[in-house]
Specification:
single chain, alpha+beta, Rossmann fold, 6-stranded mixed beta sheet, 19 helices, 17 strands
Length: 572
């Protein structure tokens, strides 16, 4: 349930905080007071298009915050847990819009993408806008509406058709890859074989390249390396014009041995010196061997360079690392195998495609039959609703057709066009009076008739929906009198099971409110601002109903307003 709306510097609003309650919440006020602006703000916060035009003149940013009580819906709770928002029973969704046009969405203070907000909001709020009747004039939307009213079996069939359609398309794409020109396949196989042989002939080893680089480093500096090692050896052991380190250490040993005879405590130092002399002899031997092993042969360096060039060449062509080159080789081997076995694979794919086509045709046929049953139910329910809305002689009909297509699915002896939603084209037809042939809504219905048809359908949709909050923005436009009272009654019935927020100009609807909120415009410091307050006292509600009834607050209007309230009170 939407518990609270907070706006700051949004459109005509400086600051506005509106607390909402369960049941039917109505928003009223004079034209231009900002009722629809409030709904716009909710839409933007829930992932709608954020425009710099929403930022109040002179402000650097606008802010919207929505506080929700989280309902006990399994799907919603699972989604919140996956998103990491399962820490409580309340949720804050906010949107900040900068004057430059950029915006930031947050959930419980953490920045998120607009897509994340949209995914979450679909479980929380369903908004039926004042211009939503426009989509009722678009036939491609009629199928979606029919499907949403069709029940679980229809939805299951729709899901099944979608899965089969995607598999059908995938198989067809794979089959097309095998049905290319034979010469093209032969050229591709020759290229693949060449690439595979080239990589195999190199006999690449993951660690070899680093070893080769180290070898090259040694070979490039071999002469200087031998000189440095020899100098180290000469200094340590070989001697020369000057005494070597080994000779000096020998003299140290002799002195310490003599000292140890005079003081036994120095025996350990003498032994340590002897050990060092032994290790220095070992080090000297190692230096001599290292000097002898330094390879200064130019041919060795050339061989290393040639081997490294093999690695460089393959890396330029097939991958930046040895691992990538070997992985590329494996992929080429798989592609070659598929091409070499293309006829067998094509036959297998063709057989599977035919099987999926038969299964898809069956599912599409069943889905079409279920849609026809749903269409008959929708026609009956819509006629009942239209009758209650003052259109007892009108009828809403559903026309379901298929389009022939030589490349389509074969169903009942004909080939028909198909897609992820099946084979049906659905269009709503409207007959306002008996004896008139039904015609498309877009060609016959008036604005008022469209509004009533929309209300009838929305009532049917809302009855089967489990979204906890429904928002209706002036969907009562174009109707009044008895029809307005019926609309109010329907909204009130829906509000028994969920929260309904309704922007209305009709007193017949406002008088049924569980919570009545008044929006108004004021001029403050030379600027027009929108304010909102909840009408808690009965006399406040009476005055607002009187204004809605007569355009002004007169004694006659006040009395009429009181009669409305008494007639709709629980004890009436």
């Amino acid at each position: 349930m939407l518990r609270e709306i907070y706006l700051e510097n949004f459109a005509l609003v400086d600051k506005l905080r509106l607390e909402l309650g369960p049941g039917l919440n109505v928003l009223t006020g004079e034209t231009g007071a900002g009722k629809s602006v409030l709904i716009d703000a909710v839409e933007v916060a829930l992932g709608g298009r954020a425009s710099a035009d929403y930022v109040k003149a002179g402000a650097d940013r606008a802010r919207i915050e929505l506080l929700f009580d989280v309902p006990e819906q399994e799907g919603l709770r699972t989604l919140l847990a996956d998103m990491g928002y399962d820490e409580g029973d309340q949720l804050v969704i906010s949107r900040e819009i900068l004057a430059q046009g950029r915006s930031v969405a947050r959930i419980n203070g953490r920045p998120v993408t607009v897509g994340t907000v949209q995914q979450l909001s679909s479980y929380l709020v369903d908004i039926h806008g004042q211009h939503e009747h426009q989509w009722l004039l678009k036939p491609h939307m009629h199928r979606r509406l029919l499907d949403s009213l069709g029940g679980q079996r229809l939805r299951d069939l729709l899901d099944q058709v979608g899965l089969l359609y995607r598999r059908h398309r995938q198989l067809r794409q794979q089959l097309e890859a095998y049905s290319g020109d034979a010469r093209t396949r032969a050229r591709e196989m020759d290229l693949l074989r060449f690439q595979i042989r080239e990589i195999q002939a190199a006999r690449l080893q993951p660690e070899e390249e680093s070893d080769l680089l180290a070898q090259r480093q040694r070979l490039m500096h071999a002469q200087r390396l031998r000189e440095v090692i020899h100098e180290a050896y000469a200094t340590a052991y070989a001697g020369g014009p000057q005494r070597s380190a080994f000779d000096s250490l020998g003299e140290v040993c002799a002195r310490l041995e003599e000292a140890a005879q005079l003081d036994g405590a120095l025996g350990q130092l003498a032994a340590e010196a002897k050990r060092l002399q032994y290790e220095l002899r070992e080090l000297s031997s190692a230096l001599r061997r290292a000097s002898e092993e330094v390879n200064t042969d130019p041919a060795a360096l050339e061989a290393v360079e040639e081997r490294l060039e093999v690695y460089r060449k393959l890396k330029r062509k097939y991958g930046s690392t040895v691992e990538e080159i070997l992985a590329y080789q494996e992929e080429m081997e798989r592609r070659l195998s598929r091409l070499e076995n293309s006829e067998e694979e094509a036959s297998r794919l063709q057989a599977e495609l035919e099987a999926v086509s038969r299964e898809l045709a069956t599912s599409c046929r069943l889905l079409s039959e279920e849609r026809r049953r749903a269409a008959r139910r929708l026609e009956d329910m819509a006629s009942e609703q239209l009758s209650e809305l003052g259109m007892a002689r009108a009828a809403l009909l559903v026309r379901i057709t298929q389009e022939e297509d030589a490349q389509g699915l074969e169903i009942n002896g004909k080939r028909v066009r198909f897609g992820p939603e099946g084979i049906d084209r659905v269009e709503f037809l409207f007959a306002p009076n008996p004896g008139e042939p039904p015609r498309p809504l877009s060609r016959i219905a008036s604005g008022g008739e469209i509004s009533r048809v929309m209300l009838a359908l929305k009532y049917l949709l809302a009855r089967d929906d489990d979204v906890p909050t429904l928002i209706f923005d002036e969907v009562d436009s174009g109707i009044g009198g008895r029809a307005g009272a019926v609309v109010g009654s329907k909204l009130h019935r829906i509000a028994r099971d969920r929260q309904v927020i309704c922007v209305t100009h009709l007193a017949q609807i406002a008088c049924l409110a569980d919570h009545h909120h008044l929006l108004s415009k004021r001029v403050r410091a030379g600027r027009t601002v929108t304010e909102a307050r909840s009408l808690l006292k009965e006399e406040e509600k009476v005055r607002e109903l009187a204004r809605m009834l007569a355009g002004e607050v007169s004694e006659t209007a006040l009395e009429h307003a009181r009669q409305l309230l008494r007639a709709t009170s629980p004890g009436a």
